[in-house]
Amino acid sequence: MKLRITEIFYSLQGESRTIGLPTVFIRLTGCPLRCQYCDTTYAFKGGELVELTAIMEKVASYNPHYVCVTGGEPLAQPNCIMLLKQLCDAGYQVSLETSGALDISATDTRVSRVVDLKTPDSQEVARNLYENINYLTKNDQIKFVICSRDDYDWAKTKLIQYDLSNRVDEIIFSPSFQQVKPQQLADWIIADNLPVRFQLQLHKILWNDEPGH
């Protein structure tokens, strides 16, 4: 069994509820979406086919507690489901970063699924698979990348419409890099007293978004 891999590296988690924790990242190649703010376009193509056993050996070489499967869109590769299961079976704390455009129902529920809801200004809002919300648990997280005030207002309506704060462990609002001022988003959240976590992407602050971090 093989998966197409762009990179495997060890760094600090830059977002989500495990932000700041040393984490192995497995970046799978390929994505059917084209969000206008995408910061990993280098993962759209190329990569290398790697045996699942070799991936597990590479991960183990770092002796990590946390492993994040990301992309691209990891679920675009069907073998991702088995990768997630084997990582959980090996005893790692596993998270999956997914666009929310593909079905998450087959993923191991031991995995903390970090599911995007694409906002209108991402230019991929039509790709949201809202049926995924039915499969979310308190082990999961939802992320909104906010590009504008309109995006913020849209995200607020989704919080209410889907009762998201009672479905998942964390709801994350992040400002789209260089598109909305972080302080502005923070002020909106405070003014509305939203039950969400404001978050900046730590890896962009520390390493200026260089690949491999």
Automatic annotation (TrEMBL):
List of residues binding [4Fe-4S] cluster: 31, 35, 38
Note on how the cofactor is bound: Binds 1 [4Fe-4S] cluster. The cluster is coordinated with 3 cysteines and an exchangeable S-adenosyl-L-methionine. Binds 1 S-adenosyl-L-methionine per subunit.
Molecular function in Gene Ontology: 4 iron, 4 sulfur cluster binding; carbon-nitrogen lyase activity; magnesium ion binding; S-adenosyl-L-methionine binding
Alphabetical GO biological process terms: tRNA queuosine(34) biosynthetic process
Pathway(s) served: Purine metabolism; 7-cyano-7-deazaguanine biosynthesis
PROSITE patterns registered for this protein in UniProt: RADICAL_SAM
Enzyme class: lyase
InterPro entries linked: 7-CO-7-deazaguanine_synth-like (IPR024924), Aldolase_TIM (IPR013785), rSAM (IPR007197), rSAM_QueE_gams (IPR027621), rSAM_sf (IPR058240)
Positions that bind substrate: 12-14, 27, 70
Catalytic activity annotation: 6-carboxy-5,6,7,8-tetrahydropterin + H(+) = 7-carboxy-7-carbaguanine + NH4(+)
Keywords: 4Fe-4S, Iron, Iron-sulfur, Lyase, Magnesium, Metal-binding, Queuosine biosynthesis, S-adenosyl-L-methionine
Entry's EC annotation: 4.3.99.3
Residues of the Radical SAM core domain: 18-209
Pfam family of the protein (one): Radical_SAM
Binding site for S-adenosyl-L-methionine: 37-39, 72
Family recorded in the similarity comment: Belongs to the radical SAM superfamily. 7-carboxy-7-deazaguanine synthase family.
Xref: NCBIfam families: rSAM_QueE_gams (TIGR04349)
Function text: Catalyzes the complex heterocyclic radical-mediated conversion of 6-carboxy-5,6,7,8-tetrahydropterin (CPH4) to 7-carboxy-7-deazaguanine (CDG), a step common to the biosynthetic pathways of all 7-deazapurine-containing compounds.
Protein name from the UniProt record: 7-carboxy-7-deazaguanine synthase
Organism: Entomomonas asaccharolytica
